[in-house]
Amino acid sequence: MQPRIHVITLGVRDLERALAFYRDGLGLPSPGVIGTEFEGDETTPAGAAAMFELEGGVTLALYPRTELAKDANVEFGEPATSEFSIGQLVASRDEVDALLAQAQSAGATATDEPHERPWGIYSGYFRDPDGHLWEIIWNPGRA
Question: What is the reported pTM?
Answer without folding.
Answer: 0.92
